[in-house]
Amino acid sequence: MIQLFIPLNFLGFIYREIREALINIERLFGLLEAPVKVVDVETAPALRISGGAVRFDKVSHAYTAERPILEDVSFTIPAGQTLAVVGPSGAGKSTLARLLFRFYDVSSGSISIDEQDIRSVSQHSLRQAIGVVPQDTVLFNDSIGYNIAYGKPGASDEEIWNALRMAQLEDFVAQLPEGLNTQVGERGLKLSGGEKQRIAIARVLLKDPQLLILDEATSSLDTHSERRILDSLNLVAQRRTTLAIAHRLSTIIHAEQILVLDQGRVVEQGNHQQLLAAGGAYAHLWAEQLRNSEGESDV
Ligand code: ATP
User: Fold this and answer.
1) How are beta strands 116-117 and 257-262 bridged, if at all?
2) Angle between helices 193-207 and 157-166 in degrees, nearest 10
3) Are 75 and 268 in contact (CB under 8 A)?
4) Does the chain have fewer CB atoms within 10 Å around its N or its C terminus?
5) Terminus-to-terminus CA distance in the chain, angstroms?
6) Cα of 105 to ligand 1 centre, how many Å?
């Protein structure tokens, strides 16, 4: 019995640890792809955030030795600014986000935040400093209040309502019969993709991190929901250093920088106007999206 109990208990521990660490990033990082555990250097100090400037310096990455995914990627996101990454499926966009969160260590090159190599600081402090709005948020089978306060354990109801208001969920929750105590998840209220994403936004607003990873997901949303999500995302990205993985070009027009990634390499970099004027890969992507979204009012 004891023999059986120990492994089960251990598995439970692993499960809880993964759940705690990854609950709001599971889709971004792929919960089922068991990560190679990154290790803190002994007595690693906490990350000290001044403005939250991010620097990728000649970053290359391969999940398996025979297949390089990112090659020699360099960019800087000045404190408080947004860098949007676009490119075809499989180009390596999410990999950039996984590396910034230090889900994996880079194969070569370095990533730093405010001049501190992220391998030299504690993982806990790094992840505390970064908020993630994933494509698909998984909720706890618990109250809606709990699901939002997850961003900041011990948050007051007032703080939760503030976050809900900024995430444009205040009216929605206010009209639920049990308000913040309404149960959500498999056994409770089912939320739409857009509502779930706004819960993720509310969590991040409550956590109030200096850095943000946005994995934009708008494909399954109608235009009205998309507009609301974009408004909330713009709000949450304000004054935070943001790495946005963008699938729809309409959402990144205002990003200070846009990085076009193709087969793991940076093929273009600039802002929207510069890249359109350059008439290269971005301009082609843009023209293609315009064609695909003909008739939609927001593009
Ligand atoms: P999409 O727009 O479709 O989300 P992406 O540009 O975000 O794509 P990534 O998720 O970064 O692409 O994946 C880049 C490449 O790395 C893909 O070919 C993918 O199959 C591969 N890859 C991703 N995660 C792993 C992993 N854990 N192990 C091995 N290969 C992986």
Assistant:
1) unpaired
2) 130
3) no
4) N
5) 62
6) 15
CA–chain centroid gap for 278, Å, is 29
Joined together, the tokens standing for residue 75 give 């960019």
Residues 166, 168, 173, 174: what is their CA dihedral angle, to the nearest 10 degrees? 80
Q: What's the pLDDT tens digit per position in 31-69?
A: 444 455 788 888 899 999 999 999 999 999 999 988 999
Instruction: Flag whether the ipTM exceeds 0.95.
Output: yes
CA–centroid distance, residue 94 to ligand 1 (Å): 7
Q: How far is the CA of 12 from the centre of ligand 1 (A)?
A: 28
In whole angstroms, what is the distance from residue 100 CA to residue 118 CA? Answer: 8
Residue bearing the CA closest to ligand 1, atom 26: 63
Phi and psi of 111, rounded to 5°? -125, 130
Phi first, then psi: give them for residue 289, nearest 5 degrees: -65, -35
pTM of the complete model beyond 0.95: no
Q: Which of 25, 85, 86, 93 to mutate to test the pocket of ligand 1 (most atoms within 8 A of CB)?
A: 93
